[in-house]
Design a protein that fits this description.
Layout: H1 2-18, E1 20-21, E2 23-26, E3 36-42, E4 51-56, E5 69-70, E6 82-91, E7 99-104, E8 107-108, E9 110-115, E10 118-119, E11 124-125, E12 131-134, E13 143-152, H2 158-165, E14 170-171, E15 174-175, E16 179-184, E17 188-196, E18 201-209, E19 215-223, E20 228-237, E21 243-249, E22 264-272, E23 275-284, E24 289-292, E25 296-299, E26 302-304, E27 306-311, H3 324-336, E28 341-344, H4 351-360, E29 363-368, H5 377-391, E30 397-404, H6 413-419, E31 426-429, E32 432-433, E33 436-437, H7 444-453, E34 457-458, E35 463-465, H8 476-485, E36 491-495, E37 502-504, E38 510-512, H9 531-539, E39 543-545, E40 557-562, E41 573-580, E42 591-598, E43 607-612, E44 623-629, E45 635-642, H10 646-653, E46 663-666, E47 670-675, E48 678-683, E49 689-694, E50 697-698, E51 702-708, E52 718-722, E53 725-729, E54 740-745, E55 751-757, E56 763-764, E57 767-772, E58 778-787, E59 800-807, E60 825-827, E61 832-837, E62 842-846, E63 852-855, E64 877-882, E65 903-904, E66 916-923
Helix pairs in contact: 3-4
C-alpha cells in the first residue's frame, strides 16, 4: 500500500511545482535601509560631470549630487538636472520562454530605459507611480545585461511639472523606490482586482495572458494564517479570453475596518490544458464603503467620522526613499494618536505603507498627484491607470482624490470608476464636489457655521495647518467637538504628519525646513514627538472620560462615552493607579498603588459609567490615574485627576516657624528683612522685590511682581510685626491703588506673596505677575503639576499631573537642534516648582488652583501673514492665571475657536470682592 501511494504523492508535488509563483528578482535594494550601489553620473550641480556610484533606491540630492529644490523655487520645473544610471545583471537560461517585466516602483521624474543598448519602451513621465516594461526580447540569457537609465529631475511634460514639481514641498530626483524583475510563465495572470463586500460577496476580475487551448482559472480563499475558507471556485476560459471574473460568497466573514483590520488572502491558479502554470496570491479585506448624500460616510453600514492626518512620503536623510520599517513606524505613531485615517498628500505612497495600513487599520485617501496644477488628460489617464492598478486591492483605500487645491483635471473623474472595480468615491481636495465640501483651513466661526448650515457632507482634507508649535493640537478640541456633534460632518485631516526637514549634504548636515514651509508636523523630521502629539491623542481618544472633580465624597465613578464606531468597551481594558509624590527637597520617594477598574459594556456611541474600585486610603494620595487600552493592547490615553489640591500641598510644604523673629530695617528707598539667614530687600514705593541673598550668596530673582496687562498701582506701603513675622503691604484705594500687594516673611525664611488685582481691560490675553531672572543661569526645572510639555490656552489637553524634570534647552519647535519637550513657554497646574541654577536653587509654590508658570520667551519666528505669533509676558519667569493661545500658518489664534479667544473679566468698578487673587510662597534657603 505504501509503495502505491508514493508515486501519486510525488505526482501531486510535481504538478504543484509546475505552477510557478510570480517571482521577484530585485536589481536595487528594497528600501532606504537596504540599497545596492549602481553606477551614476549627475549632469549638473554638486559632484556632477563624473561617473561614480549611488545607492538605489535613493534621491540623489541626499547622496551629495545636484541641487536642492523646494517646489516654490523658480527652477522647480525648468532645471536640466539629470541622473544617468548603469547596472549590470545576469539572466539565467532558465528564464527563456518566460515573460520578464522590468518594474519601477517610483522614479523622479522622467525615465528613459535602455537594455543592452536598446530602448525598453516609451519614456515614463511622472514620479510616484509604478510602471513596467516587458524586456523578454531584450535580455541576453546565460550572460550579462547592461541596464541604462536616464532620469530627468524635471519633466519634459509641462503638465507633470505643474502637478508635481511646483508644490509646497521638497523636489527631489532619482530612482527612489525599488527596481525589480518580475518573472512570469508565458501563460500567466497579469492583474487581479478584487471587490470583497461586507455581505461576504467576493468578486475578482482577472486579466490573463494565455494562448493555449481551453484552460481554467480557480481561486481559494484563506485566512491570513492559512486556514481554508470555504471551497475552491473556478471558471473555464477560452483561448481568446483575456479577462475573467470569479465570484464567491463567504458567510459571515470577519470584516475589515480601521478598528478591526481583519484580512484574508486568496490564491488564484491558472491551468492550461489541465496543467497548473501560474499561481498568484493577494491579500484583501471584506468591507463596503457607501456615501449617503447629505448624510455621511458609511463603512459596513456604520456611519464613521474620520480622524486623519496628511502624510508626505519623507525621511530627512533619504528624501522620499523609504522602507517598510518606516511605514510601520509612521502608522503606529498615527494609531498612537488615536487617528483612524490618513490622506496621501499629494501623491500615491509606497506599496508597503498601504500594506501596513491594511494590517494595522487606517482608512486611506489615495491621491492622484496635483497641487495647484494638474496633469493633462492624456498623461493623467495613464498615471491614473497606474495608480489604481497598483493600489486597487488594499482594503484600507476607501477614497480616491483627484488632485489638490485646484490641481484637479475634471476630465479624469469618470475614469476612476472605469478603472476601479470597487467604484470608490472620488474627491477634489478643497472643493465642494461630489456631495463633499472639503474646503481647507476655514476659521472656526465661519467654518463651523457653514458646516452647521450647509447641505454637503463636510470633510476638510486639510485643517489646522500646523507650523512650528501652532495648529494641530491648538484649537483641535473646539473643532472636533463641533464636528463630532454635527450630523453632516465626516471628520477631517490635519496638515501634516511630520516636519519636512531635509538633511543638507551641502551644508554640513543641517536639517532644512525651507524656513517655515516644511515645519508643519505633529512630529519632527525623525518623528520626535511634539506637544500636540499628546493633545491629539487625548482629544481623539475613542474612549472619552468626562471632566470629574475628585472630592471627599467621590465614589469611584467616571462618566464615560464610547466614541468607537465598531468596538464595544467590553473589549477594552482599564487600569487605575494612585500616586503620592514627594516634595521638591524632602527626599520622599513617590509611592503608588494600583486598583482595578471594571470595563463597562457600552455599545459604540453609548454613554455610561466607569467604576473604579478604590482602596480605603485613596484620599492619602495626590493624583489618580485612569488608563484605557484598546483590544490590540495599544494605550488610548491615561487621564490624571488631582486628589490633593495646591493649598493642601503648600500647607505641608511651607514652614513658618523659626527660633528667632524676623528683623526689619528701613532706608530711604528700601525695606530690608532678614530671617533664618535669608536677606530680602523691597522697594518702599512699589513693593517690588529688589534683592535676594542667603548665607551662600545672591539669588538673582528680582523685579517682581510686575502685573501683566494690569497696572502696578501698589502704593502707600506699611509694615508691621505679627508675632515673629513681618508683614509689608500696600493700601487699597478704589481710584488710585485698587491692586494690592502683601509680603509676609516668616521666621523660617519662607516668604509669602499675596497679590489681589484687576486685569486692565475687558479683554485680556495674559493675566498674572512677572519676575526677572537671568536665563544664562538657569540649568533645569523640577515641578509638580501638569507636564512635561508646555501648553497654550487653546491646547490644554494631553499632559499628565505628576512631578516632572527637564534640563534647560533652547529648542524651537520644528527647528534643529531638536530637544523635546521644549524648556521655554507656559506650563499648567502648578503646585510647586524648584529652579536649578548655576548658583543656588530656589523653590516657588502656590495655594491657588489653575496657576501657570512661564519659563522665559522662545525666540519665535513668524509667517508672512503673522498668524502664528504667540504672545509672552515681559520679564523672565511668570506666574499666571491666564495665558495666550497660539495660531497656525493659516489662522490667527482667535479664529481657531472659543479656546483661542482672549479672556474676559468683569471688574464691577473694581469692587474688592471681584479681584483676582494670586498667592505664591518662596523658599530662598538654597536647599
Amino acid at each position: 500500500m505504501t509503495h502505491r501511494l508514493i508515486p501519486v504523492f510525488l505526482l501531486l508535488i510535481a504538478q504543484v511545482a509546475t505552477a510557478q509563483q510570480t517571482e521577484k528578482r530585485y536589481l536595487s535594494g528594497t528600501g532606504n535601509d537596504q540599497t545596492i550601489d549602481w553606477e551614476f553620473y549627475c549632469t549638473a550641480g554638486r559632484n556632477s560631470g563624473k561617473w561614480t556610484t549611488i545607492p538605489v533606491p535613493s534621491n540623489w540630492e541626499l547622496q551629495g549630487f545636484g541641487k536642492y529644490n523646494y517646489g516654490f523655487a523658480k527652477d522647480s520645473s525648468r532645471g536640466k538636472e539629470q541622473g544617468l544610471y548603469k547596472h549590470h545583471f545576469q539572466a539565467p537560461a532558465s528564464w527563456k520562454g518566460k515573460q520578464i517585466n522590468l518594474v519601477f516602483e517610483g522614479v523622479m521624474t522622467d525615465t528613459e530605459v535602455k537594455l543592452n543598448g536598446k530602448s525598453a519602451g516609451p519614456t515614463h513621465e511622472g514620479s510616484y507611480y509604478a510602471f513596467k516594461y516587458d524586456i523578454s526580447n531584450l535580455l541576453q540569457y546565460s550572460s550579462g545585461n547592461l541596464l541604462e537609465i536616464t532620469v530627468s529631475k524635471h519633466s519634459a511634460n509641462a503638465s507633470v511639472n505643474e502637478a508635481e514639481r511646483k508644490g509646497d514641498f521638497w523636489i527631489f530626483g532619482g530612482i527612489f523606490r525599488p527596481v525589480y524583475l518580475e518573472i512570469l510563465p508565458a501563460g500567466h495572470i497579469e492583474h487581479v482586482a478584487i471587490d470583497a463586500k461586507a455581505n461576504g460577496s467576493f468578486t475578482a476580475q482577472l486579466q490573463l495572458k494565455t494562448n493555449r487551448k481551453a484552460s481554467e482559472i480557480s481561486g481559494q480563499i484563506y485566512t491570513v494564517s492559512g486556514q481554508k475558507v470555504g471551497e475552491p471556485f473556478s471558471a473555464k476560459i477560452g483561448t481568446e479570453t483575456h479577462t475573467v471574473a470569479l465570484t464567491k460568497t463567504v458567510p459571515k466573514p470577519l470584516l475589515w475596518t480601521s478598528e478591526t483590520p481583519n484580512r484574508y488572502k486568496v490564491e488564484f491558479r491558472l491551468l492550461e490544458a489541465g496543467k497548473p502554470v501560474h499561481t498568484l496570491t493577494k491579500f484583501f479585506g471584506f468591507r463596503t464603503v457607501d456615501v449617503k448624500p447629505r448624510d455621511g460616510i458609511y463603512v459596513n453600514g456604520t456611519k464613521v467620522k474620520l480622524k486623519g492626518v496628511n502624510r508626505h512620503s519623507f525621511w530627512p536623510s533619504s528624501g522620499r526613499a523609504l522602507s517598510k520599517k518606516l511605514s510601520i513606524l509612521d502608522v503606529n505613531l498615527m494609531k498612537d494618536m488615536n487617528m483612524n485615517a490618513v490622506r496621501m498628500s499629494h501623491y500615491p505612497p509606497d506599496d508597503h505603507f498601504l500594506d501596513v495600513c491594511d494590517s494595522l487599520g487606517l482608512f486611506v485617501f489615495d491621491e492622484l498627484a496635483g497641487w495647484h496644477g494638474h496633469y493633462d488628460t492624456a498623461t493623467g489617464s495613464k498615471l491614473l491607470h497606474e495608480l489604481i492598478t497598483h493600489d486597487v486591492n488594499h482594503p484600507s483605500v476607501i477614497f480616491w482624490i483627484n488632485g489638490n487645491e485646484g490641481g484637479h483635471n475634471a476630465e479624469l473623474d469618470a475614469l476612476f470608476a472605469q478603472e476601479d472595480l470597487q467604484k470608490r468615491p472620488v474627491l477634489h481636495a478643497w472643493e465642494d464636489f461630489g456631495g463633499f465640501d472639503t474646503q481647507h483651513y476655514r476659521e472656526y466661526n465661519y467654518g463651523i457655521g457653514t458646516y452647521n448650515h450647509g447641505h454637503s457632507i463636510t470633510l476638510p482634507t486639510e485643517f489646522l495647518h500646523g507650523m512650528y508649535d501652532g495648529g494641530h493640537g491648538a484649537g483641535l478640541d473646539d473643532y472636533w467637538e463641533a464636528m463630532w456633534h454635527d450630523p453632516l460632518a465626516a471628520g477631517g485631516f490635519l496638515w501634516d504628519f511630520a516636519d519636512q526637514g531635509v538633511v543638507r549634504t551641502d551644508q554640513n548636515g543641517l536639517i532644512d525646513t525651507d524656513g517655515n514651509r516644511g515645519a508643519d508636523g505633529i512630529v519632527g523630521p525623525y518623528r520626535e514627538k511634539e506637544g500636540s502629539f499628546f493633545t491629539i491623542r487625548e482629544v481623539w481618544s475613542p474612549i472619552r472620560l468626562e471632566r470629574r472633580e475628585i472630592t471627599p465624597t467621590f465614589d469611584g465613578t467616571f462618566p464615560i462615552e464610547n466614541r468607537y464606531h465598531f468596538t464595544h468597551t467590553s473589549r477594552c481594558s482599564f487600569t487605575g493607579k494612585l500616586v503620592k509624590v514627594g516634595g521638591p527637597f524632602n527626599g520622599v520617594k513617590p509611592s503608588e498603588k494600583s486598583f482595578p477598574v471594571a470595563a463597562p459594556n457600552l455599545k459604540p456611541l453609548e454613554k455610561g459609567v466607569l467604576k473604579a474600585q478604590l482602596p480605603g486610603d485613596w484620599k492619602d494620595y495626590d493624583f489618580l490615574y485612569i488608563t484605557a487600552t484598546d483590544p490590540h493592547r495599544r494605550e488610548l490615553f491615561t487621564w490624571s485627576f488631582p486628589i490633593s489640591l495646591p493649598n493642601q500641598i503648600a500647607a505641608s510644604l511651607v514652614k513658618t516657624d523659626g527660633s528667632a523673629p524676623v528683623t526689619f530695617t528701613e532706608s530711604d528707598s528700601l525695606y530690608t528683612v532678614s530671617a533664618n539667614g535669608i536677606v530680602l530687600s523691597f522697594s518702599k514705593r512699589t513693593g517690588v522685590l529688589k534683592h535676594v541673598a542667603n548665607l551662600n550668596g545672591t539669588i538673582p530673582f528680582t523685579n517682581g511682581p510686575v502685573l501683566q496687562e494690569g497696572i502696578n498701582n501698589f502704593k502707600n506701603f506699611t509694615h508691621r510685626m505679627d508675632g515673629k513675622t513681618v508683614v509689608i503691604e500696600s493700601t487699597f484705594d478704589r481710584k488710585s491703588s485698587y491692586n494690592t500687594l502683601q509680603w509676609t516673611i516668616f521666621p523660617s525664611g519662607w516668604v509669602k506673596m499675596r497679590v489681589r488685582y484687576f486685569p486692565d481691560g475687558y479683554f485680556t490675553t495674559l493675566v498674572g505677575v512677572n519676575f526677572s531672572f537671568p536665563e544664562r543661569e538657569m540649568k533645569a526645572v523640577n515641578w509638580m503639576g501638569k507636564g512635561p510639555y508646555r501648553v497654550w490656552k487653546n491646547r490644554m489637553k494631553g499632559g499628565t499631573l505628576g512631578v516632572w524634570n527637564k534640563a534647560y534647552n533652547n529648542t524651537e519647535t520644528g527647528e534643529t537642534p531638536v530637544v523635546y519637550p521644549e524648556f521655554k513657554g507656559y506650563h499648567a497646574n502648578l503646585y510647586w516648582c524648584r529652579f536649578e541654577t548655576t548658583g543656588q536653587p530656589f523653590t516657588v509654590a502656590t495655594e491657588n488652583e489653575d496657576v501657570f508658570f512661564r519659563l522665559f520667551t522662545p525666540a519665535w519666528k513668524t509667517d508672512q501673514w503673522h498668524n502664528y505669533e504667540p504672545l509672552f509676558p515681559t520679564g523672565d519667569l511668570s506666574f499666571l492665571q491666564g495665558i495666550s493661545s497660539i495660531g497656525s500658518k493659516t489662522q490667527r489664534n482667535e479664529t481657531t475657536g472659543p479656546m483661542g479667544m482672549k479672556h474676559i473679566f468683569y471688574d464691577y468698578e473694581k469692587e474688592p470682592a471681584r479681584a483676582k487673587e494670586l498667592t505664591l510662597y518662596f523658599d530662598f534657603s538654597g536647599k
